[in-house]
Specification:
- The protein is α+β, with helices and mostly antiparallel strands and 280 residues long.
- The chain contains 8 helices and 11 strands.
- It has helices spanning 3-7, 12-18, 41-48, 81-89, 104-117, 220-234, 249-261, 264-278; strands spanning 25-27, 57-61, 64-65, 93-96, 119-128, 138-139, 143-158, 169-170, 179-186, 190-193, 199-217.
- The longest helix is centred in the C-terminal third of the chain and has 15 residues, at 220-234.
- The protein is globular and about 70 Å long.
């Protein structure tokens, strides 16, 4: 399993150069079993039978979150899954964080994506009862793939207020909301949402289970930090305290930074080193 699988009927190259970081895209598969090799109902049942740490679960409605103590085993930091499912039955959504290892297919897909996208990929699972909304309209600071495992959910996407932001945000009532797309994901369907695109989802008249793959990529800004860290390690003037600076210090700092960043050969060499750390 790889990026080609998620981008079907596109190929990975077409997706990266025409869709990724540029716009949302809906991949209807018209096959309710399409994702079963990645994650299925049996995988969910097995995962829920495990000892799940309280830190890995949230039980939420758009109006608020249930306190962890109310879904914990007595005297324990482990989830009382019965209490969590009771909350689900009363209209709360269940979010399970980082379910890596929940299935062999999911683990294989994540490892492939991390290699091809130079990213950290984290799988989160969302169980939502019928006719419910778990989260308010918000945008994320990471790209996401939504994998609809079973049931259905209607998604609403809005025009970005900020392009490719570094932070997440829940929209305020005063924030503009120009809806650009809405559609219902059924079992087997996949939706890609770039970071910064505001969205929310509401289940239909059936409950829903989807897996969200959060894609935290290595960015050009990360490479710039790497260049500067390397420069600091090689230049004692940049490691001195501000309090010891004199009138010539700003000029020394400027000269060192300009020399490091304006040398094309140096930047290319460091870029290859940096990429090599994340390529497998």
């Amino acid at each position: 399993m790889n990026l080609n699988f998620l981008a079907n009927p596109m190929n990975a190259k077409e997706f990266l150069f025409s869709i990724f970081e540029q716009k949302p895209f809906f991949f209807p598969q018209n096959n309710s079993a399409y994702l079963q090799s990645i994650f299925c109902k049996a995988d969910l049942d097995l995962y829920l039978s495990r000892d799940i740490p309280l830190a890995d679960i949230r039980v939420v409605k758009s109006e608020g979150t249930i306190a962890p103590a109310l879904i914990a085993r007595p005297g324990s930091a482990i989830v009382n899954i019965g209490a969590a499912l009771d909350a689900f039955a009363s209209g709360y959504s269940i979010t399970l964080h980082n379910i890596l290892g929940a299935s062999h297919g999911l683990t294989a897909l994540i490892r492939s994506l991390e290699n091809s996208l130079l990213a950290r990929v984290e799988p989160n699972l969302y169980l939502t009862p019928e006719n419910s909304q778990g989260f308010k309209t918000h945008w994320d600071n990471h790209d996401v793939f939504i994998l609809q495992v079973f049931g259905s959910k209607k998604w609403h996407l809005f025009a970005p207020i900020m392009i490719l932001p570094n932070h997440s945000k829940v929209l305020e009532p005063s924030d503009s909301r120009n809806e650009t797309w809405n559609g219902t994901l059924s079992a087997g369907d996949i939706l890609y949402i770039p970071r910064g695109v505001p969205h929310h989802a509401i289940t239909t008249n059936e409950s829903s289970c989807h897996v969200t793959l959060t894609i935290s990529t290595q960015k050009n800004s990360h490479f710039l930090h790497y260049l500067l860290d390397d420069l600091v390690n090689s230049n004692i003037d940049l490691r001195r305290s501000l309090v010891t600076n004199n009138d010539s210090s700003p000029a020394l700092i400027s000269k060192a930074v300009v020399e490091a960043l304006c040398s094309a050969d140096n930047v290319e060499k460091k870029y290859k080193q940096y990429i090599g750390r994340y390529s497998k």
